[in-house]
Give the backbone structure.
Amino acid sequence: MTRLVPSLALACYFSLLQLPPLARAAAPVEGRVSAVTLYRGQAQVTREVPIEGAAGRLEVVVSQLPEQIVPNSLFAEGGDGVEIRAVRFRTRAVGEEPREEVRKLDDEILATQQELDLTTKRQALLVKRTEYLAKLEGFVAPTAQSDLTKGVLDAEALERLTTFSFAQLETIATEEVELAKQARVLNERIELLNRKRAEITAGASQTLREAVLFVQKKAEAPGEIRLSYLVNNCGWSPSYVMRAAADRKQVQVEYSALIQQLSGEDWNDVELTLSTASPTLSAAGPGLAPLHVLLSTEPTHAPSDPFGAANAPAQTAQQAFASRVATKSQFQHQLEGIRSQRVEYSQAIGNADNFADVNRFSWNLNDVAGSYQLLELGCPISVLRSEAIDDGAGPSLTYALGAGVSLASRTDQQMVRIMQTSVDSHFYHTAVPVLTPHVYREAELKNTSDQDLLAGPMTAYLDGRFVGQGELPTVARGERFVVGFGADPQLRSRRELVNKTDSTQGGNRETRFEYRLVVENFGNEPAPVRVIDRLPHAENGADIRVTLGKTSDQLSEDPLYVREERPMGILRWDVEVPADAAGETARLITYDYGVEYDRKFVVSLPSTKEVQQQEFERLQRGRQKR
């Protein structure tokens, strides 16, 4: 047996020599943040990490990762001669030895606390002195009264004692004020010193976030790794400034990004890209399931006749109208629910990091889509076309700002310029006298830049003066859009009812109205004005008939107005108001219209306003786009 021991040891030695070498652990490195793609609520950060040393297996630790990192988003790419074998995320608690500056602060806090304790003792002593004087006064007064009664009062001694007592009380009052002041100063000093100490020792015990990379270095030459990860608590939003000169021939468009950056790390001199897309962890998209249907005696998701009154023939016209509006409102609520669920599950699929979750959210999307397709089976095509479901996400836009951008991790917003350009403009005025006497300036522009413009807030300046704020819609390259430049103080408008007549024909009542629209221009230049008014619009033309009569001016022939607004009862005239046109010389537009309906009823407004509000918002979006 003694002969086998050296042989066994020798065999183990040679077997160890044949094992592959373990990965060499290097000192932690931070690398440099070189590129950032900033999304609406997250950012993808890329660090460049240098790899030094001889060829072989290495364990590289990238330290000081931000606290807002998404751990499962880590991935790495190796440069020439560097192969990535594995990447993992870890956290560890670290401590720090007390520093000299902390010890100095501790000594100063202790000395100040001792001064405060001494001041507190002196204040307590003053209280006892005051109590003693009060007892002395309680003894002297009865004694003096007794001596006075007996005729043996020592007036001189009583005077000295009284003078002493009041002098002591005055001294005590002065010392109390001084000691209270000292105590307040010492307390403030201790609070300040404690805050300084807390700031210095904030990192004395902390959690480090690190990426551990196992790499194979194939050459002796230095290499590089690009480590990327997602971080939360950051994002951006668009902001615009529109500047028009006095000649109003062009508008300067300044497109900037307001950036929120609270990721926990600073981005210094990075290559910044802004994006409206959503970062995804899943490479797989949703799958489509068959849509199974069957016949049922009761509708499950959608009414079979959502906008008719076929099952209620005894209803009056007004009751049927109210019923249709209410049912349409319910349909709108169903669509809103479907839309929000679709957005939620679409985002969930993008953030899923395993196949099981992708399948689960994919089935949820199929279920939501099935609800909408069931609505398609029971609703009129005209309604479905106007209410096409949309997730509201808008286009995915990317703006590459290049290198040299620095953004600190801080609470306040930071602004970077995306683009600045000048575009040709067509200025005009808009008057809506039924709503307001003010006349507003508007400019029709065309996006001639090489960038799409994302929807966002806007600030408008005219001839160097601030004229108001507004909202800009999403504008594609080459698309026309409208920008407001505030009310023009040189123009005013009003709406006047000139005449109203009532008559009866058979069982119907007919009422005719005559109106006058007045636009005044107090300026010294003619002004192009779009004058807008409206007729009543009957939901069902068979119940109420509205007919436009004579107009002093021809209605606008703008194709968008004719297609979208004219069928809804909106009237628009494109006129020119001469200079100095006021009072008797004001620009006038006259028109009349008639309303005919069953005389047993009266005209009223629908009780449900939600559908009408959504219709108005759709028209407003159309007016912003030309």
User: Anything to note?
Assistant: The first strand starts at residue 24 and ends at 25.
